[in-house]
Write a structure and sequence with these properties.
Elements: E1 7-17, E2 20-29, E3 36-40, E4 45-48, H1 54-62, H2 66-87
Antiparallel strand pairs: 1-2, 2-3, 3-4
């Protein structure tokens, strides 16, 4: 991900989630309503009005806690069961 001309790089976080590698890029852009944002290679993103919380949430997105991993596993299981019910 290459930053736009108005964006400034804040940080990059490498890790994984849902069993796949992930890379989060945090940027700052004064032209947005919420100037701080991070975007993941999985398509997820979050924006913030201040710098506080950007790096912490980006880190947690790429380094999920055991609880986050369990929640993600349960979500995948729920989606699989729903898909199986639709295909019957």
């Amino acid at each position: 991900m290459k930053p736009q001309l108005t964006e400034f790089w804040v940080g990059t976080f490498h890790g994984s989630h849902d069993g796949f590698p992930a890379k989060v890029t945090a940027t700052h852009d004064d032209t947005r309503d919420e100037p701080y944002v991070w975007t993941c290679t999985c398509g997820a993103s979050r924006s913030f009005p201040t710098e506080h919380g950007v790096c912490a949430t980006a880190w947690r997105h790429t380094h999920p806690t055991r609880f986050d991993q369990l929640r993600q596993w349960a979500d995948r299981l729920r989606q699989s069961i729903a898909w199986l019910r639709r295909t019957r």
